[in-house]
């Protein structure tokens, strides 16, 4: 789905740019694309950037690659008075800051706010480490480009029901949004939709909000899985005794990208890894380790 969405977004961006060119440019005028070196200090981030976290290890790896092979693809910016605003390439720009470079190679071109919003989502949507919360923010930023949410879902190549889950974040209390801004991995879109339904059902009473605060604190301390928040609150409001350790999940990451998880409940310990994240040799090493571990427990 991500690849299909990125293709559709790229097409929307191209259509926007062609529309601007036809409306604003005379036939004899150059479209304004310039290839130049720009001072790092004169560049501002794309205000529609959906990504709120840039893993340090990932930036270090990119910076090392740039140090060894140079910048393969220039960043893209637009002119804003005496400064420049990123259209695409924030990770490359941040890597240059990490390297303490003073200038960066860039393509300067005309772009509207709509273009910036679409480009930011298109650049990031196929990255597996982009969270549901960040995708939700980005979708809301491009929503105005479509006549309805139905058309938005069609344009993004998304199931409409699933897209509405991304909008569920809008209904969450401010204390949860503040925590999501700091840790966008805190709640998935499904968990957000469950919480929205819960608050609607309970009319967001003080009791429900207090129970929700407690549940979120347990998620942060890794004592409660985020998928169980709504159930935890419901059972608390019923006066039931709730075990906070309903299900504990710890993500497994590599270079800042999630490749699996370790989940433990009262009955099972489940380790999940994306098959594409490890080699056959590494898989065999895991199997050998588990065989030895089981043999030792006999």
UniProtKB/TrEMBL annotation:
Q: What is an annotated GO biological process for this record, any one?
A: chromosome segregation
**A single GO molecular function term of this UniProt record:** DNA binding
Pfam families of this UniProt entry? ParB_N
Q: Mention any one GO cellular component term assigned to this protein in its UniProt record.
A: chromosome
Give the organism the record lists.
Sulfuricella denitrificans (strain DSM 22764 / NBRC 105220 / skB26)
Report whether Oxidoreductase shows up as a keyword of the record.
no
Query: What family classification does the UniProt entry report for this protein?
Result: Belongs to the ParB family.
Q: Which InterPro entries match?
A: Chromosome_partition/occlusion (IPR050336), ParB/RepB/Spo0J (IPR004437), ParB/Sulfiredoxin_sf (IPR036086), ParB_N (IPR003115)
* Matches recorded under CDD domains: SPO0J_N (cd16393)
Q: Which SUPFAM superfamilies match?
A: KorB DNA-binding domain-like, ParB/Sulfiredoxin
The record places domain ParB-like N-terminal at 36-125
- Name it: ParB family protein
What keywords are assigned to this protein?
A: Plasmid
């Amino acid at each position: 789905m991500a690849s299909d969405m990125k293709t559709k977004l790229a097409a929307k961006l191209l259509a926007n740019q062609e529309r601007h060119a036809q409306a604003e440019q005379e036939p004899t005028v150059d479209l304004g694309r310039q290839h130049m070196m720009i001072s790092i200090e004169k560049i501002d981030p794309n205000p529609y950037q959906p990504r709120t976290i840039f893993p340090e290890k990932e930036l270090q790896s990119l910076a090392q690659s740039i140090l060894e092979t140079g910048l393969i693809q220039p960043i893209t910016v637009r002119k804003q008075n005496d400064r420049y605003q990123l259209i695409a390439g924030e990770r490359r720009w941040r890597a240059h800051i990490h390297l303490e470079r003073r200038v960066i190679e860039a393509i300067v071109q005309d772009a509207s706010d709509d273009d910036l919003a679409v480009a930011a989502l298109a650049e990031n949507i196929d990255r597996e480490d982009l969270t549901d919360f960040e995708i939700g923010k980005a979708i809301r930023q491009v929503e105005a480009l479509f006549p309805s949410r139905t058309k938005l879902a069609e344009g993004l190549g998304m199931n409409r029901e699933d897209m509405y889950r991304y909008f569920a974040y809008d209904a969450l209390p401010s204390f949860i949004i503040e925590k999501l801004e700091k840790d966008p991995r805190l709640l998935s879109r499904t968990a957000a939709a469950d919480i929205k339904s819960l608050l609607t059902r309970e009319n967001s009473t003080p009791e429900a909000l207090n129970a929700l605060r407690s549940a979120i604190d347990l998620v942060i301390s890794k004592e409660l899985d985020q998928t169980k928040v709504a159930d935890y609150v419901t059972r608390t409001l019923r006066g039931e005794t709730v075990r906070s350790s309903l299900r504990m999940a710890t993500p497994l990451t590599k270079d800042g990208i999630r490749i699996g998880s370790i989940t433990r409940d009262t009955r099972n310990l489940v380790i999940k890894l994306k098959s594409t994240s490890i080699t056959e040799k590494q898989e065999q090493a895991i199997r050998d380790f588990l065989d030895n571990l089981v043999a030792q427990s006999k």
